[in-house]
Automatic annotation (TrEMBL), chains A, B:
Protein's recorded name: Octaprenyl-diphosphate synthase
InterPro entries named among the record's database cross-references: Isoprenoid_synthase_dom_sf, Polyprenyl_synt, Polyprenyl_synt_CS
Domain of life: Bacteria
BP terms from Gene Ontology: isoprenoid biosynthetic process
């Protein structure tokens, strides 16, 4: 991007999630084993499709958050492993269904499953993973955790339908867009973080703190993704820059540019995003317009504000290596934009 | 059809489900209210899509079975209403996703939701209904019922993927086909019936009896559907005769015809079902071939065998008006074929 935004000292020193990865590493080995075994089926297409996506190098940030918050709260059982695997299955099912909805060709730098096995397989294998996710949650036996995750499943789908209804609608406001992000992305982060203290039978204010951390981190994460779609590099993101633009998605950089632009620019966004008439040079023009209005920097600045809120939420917990690791994770998510 | 198959006296006397409908009527009023309230959303597209399908005149046989088995087992709480609504939501979600998978134009005699709102809406509203279904199950608070329904969700999707893998494959055996039917159709009937005795805290053998009733009834129901697709009337079925044929589905009438046919007939099925080259006169030819081999009658005969097994399963219960109503329901499902 070439944009220089000052960062906090802490973020500049530790932008990795190495500390988090190390602390949850034993649990994640069991989560990965669980994921492999629960995608097994006599129906060969199921492990083929599921593992195409699952093994394609996602960071598994969401299941790590479940293990991390459980550990932060002193949980010593093994229910966190199955809930973490459930969270990853819910996420994978969402990705499979999103690809069908968005008619995406690529996902994480590989051909989308729907391009290899068809839309049908993406829909049905997604459904299978959701079913397996709920089976694992039931096995853990916490009705409170089940309630949080079932609620997230409904909210995520509701957010996706909302986004679909608002697609290609230039009247989308910043507030409206953030509500969609809170539903479609942050709800699963929030649930992933809340089941940790639930398993550990911690009091309500710690549940609320972990949930708040997850919500804010999820919003920050999505806003950075939105910024990267107009400025990251294809290699580092694993998907093509400009996907959102070509799919006519109204993300925050667009919302901010629209609010600050003139009639000529509005005509440009109308033609490209609403009418879908995209020419080769249009992505570069979109980036120029965003640069003119500081829309990418301000998207990142808003992400940083949510990141700060995520860190603030953890003040409910005493200092610990895991708390530091969770603070690092926030910095890592923000630092992807640079 | 014009096919005359002798039926048992009981079936001939009472082929309606009027008795069942009457006995569960107070509960179903509450189920319908629950369904309406749980499809509510600020996102207007959700109630639009959901109610398009939900209000389009399905018989709601599955939720009736949940209420009926709960009542059969003496349950007096109100958890059956939410579980029955969950079962209907799971079924509706499956229909929405099936339409996308099958590229269906029609559903229950109306335009399929995907034709009106697009594949995207069908996928996502299906996901929303699944999420709402699990939320209601959690509210009921029975982990055993949750386990049964979550397992059904995974098995249904697995069966659908299996069917997708086997689509257009003339090598499908009767046994293989019945295994798919047991997964994709009978699993939800079985779960709908098993949660009744679970809520009533009845012993394992009554759970097994209700489950067995549901499984057998579900298979019988699907086989009759398969027969109707080659012989029912569009008006009475609410979908076009020949849908399965045009979609290249290998159902039991085809499996039986294939096993009994010659090379010329095999070439016909290969061209129409495997290669999808269907001409206007082909459906009539398919029906002639099936008539020649008695494939429809034998499909119905097998359905009757499963129907008998369903009735037999209820011998675990003493006579009661509800038991009679559940026996009637079996006869009703079979009688649709005539």
């Amino acid at each position: 991007m070439g944009v220089v935004v000052p960062m906090e000292e802490r973020a500049r020193e530790q932008t990795g999630i190495d500390r988090l990865v190390a602390l949850v590493s034993p649990g994640m080995a069991r989560v990965n084993q669980m994921i492999l075994s629960r995608t097994g089926s006599d129906v060969a297409m199921i492990p083929e499709v599921a593992n195409h996506l699952i093994s394609s190098g996602g960071k598994r940030l969401r299941p790590m958050l479940t293990l991390a918050t459980a550990q932060l709260c002193g949980y010593e059982g093994d229910g966190d492993v199955k809930l973490a695997a459930s969270v990853e299955f819910m996420h994978t099912a969402t990705l499979l269904h999103d690809d069908v909805v968005d008619e995406s060709d690529m996902r994480r730098g590989k051909l989308a499953a729907r391009m290899l096995w068809g839309n049908e397989a993406s829909v049905l294998v997604g459904d299978f993973l959701l079913g397996q996710a709920f089976k694992m949650m039931v096995e853990v036996g916490s009705l409170d955790a089940l309630a949080v995750l079932a609620d997230a499943a409904a909210v995520i789908a509701e957010g996706e339908v909302w986004q679909l209804s608002a697609a290609k609608n230039l009247a989308t406001t910043e507030q409206g867009y953030l509500a969609v992000v809170e539903a479609k992305t942050a709800a699963l982060f929030a649930a992933a973080c809340e089941v940790g203290p639930i398993l550990a039978a911690r009091p309500a204010h710690e549940r609320a703190a972990c949930r708040s951390y997850g919500t804010s981190l999820g919003i920050a994460f999505q806003l950075i993704d939105d910024a990267l779609d107009y400025g990251g590099s294809s290699a580092s993101l694993g998907k093509n820059v400009g996907d959102d633009f070509r799919e006519g998605k109204i993300t925050l950089p667009v919302v901010l540019s629209l609010a600050r632009g003139d009639e000529a620019e509005r005509a440009f966004w109308h033609r490209t995003l609403e009418k879908g008439e995209v020419r080769d040079e249009d992505l570069a023009e979109a980036q120029r317009i965003m640069r003119r209005h500081g829309a990418i920097e301000d998207t990142i600045a808003r992400a940083r504000t949510y990141g700060d809120a995520a860190c603030e939420a953890l003040s409910a917990f005493p200092d610990s290596p895991m708390k530091t690791a969770l603070l690092d994770a926030v910095a890592f998510c923000i630092a992807r934009a640079y």
